[in-house]
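We modelled each protein-ligand pair independently. The example shown here corresponds to the zinc ion entry; the chain sequence is given first, followed by the ligand as SMILES.
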Amino acid sequence: MQNCCSSTQCTDGSAAVSPEFRKALWIALIVNLIMFNIEIVGGLYASSVSLLADAVDFAGDAANYALSLSVLSLGLLWRARAALIKGMTMGAYGLLVVGKTAWASLYGSAPEAYTMGLIGLVALVANLSVAIMLYRFRDGDANMRSVWLCSRNDSIVNLMIILAALGVLGTETRWPDLIVAAVVSGLAISSAISIVVQARDEIATAEKTAMSLPVTVKIDESK
Ligand SMILES: [Zn+2]
């Protein structure tokens, strides 16, 4: 969520990525992709908008891990472009979930609480496992630390979904699901906006550097 690494920051490119860290990133990528699919299917099946809202985070994090793994083969400009596409996709999906949440608040019925809670629990286990797996890399540098913080914060969101499922059971209404969906999709949209803003900055910088390399070198020297 908020502290999730942006694609260009997870690893800074110059730092050698150890084989162990690469392997951990691959596992994290696969886990996040699987969970994205489970939450989409489960969210539709159980009519839970909070599961649909959380799915965007798994997709975004999967993209981050994929981009981290491609750090050595992609230049800064292409990574920034990929981040821009990712940010815009996340933002669009977030808005879609907000729309679906608004629709569900008017016409929806209570989600199927057991499926919702179970998938929330599976998501929690997935995020905690990734967090524990990445925990030993946290001292590597600030960027690896942000990868770890990302999984930890996502676990907190999963706990909110489990609590919302209990709330749905207890109240027999859809409101706990809707409230968590609103919070989660709001967080997703705000992080999508900051990803887009940062990616646009990086693209502008990279293009300026590419177009006027000698000038940039002079400016850097004068600093
Ligand atoms: Zn995340």
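Residues 19-222 form one domain.
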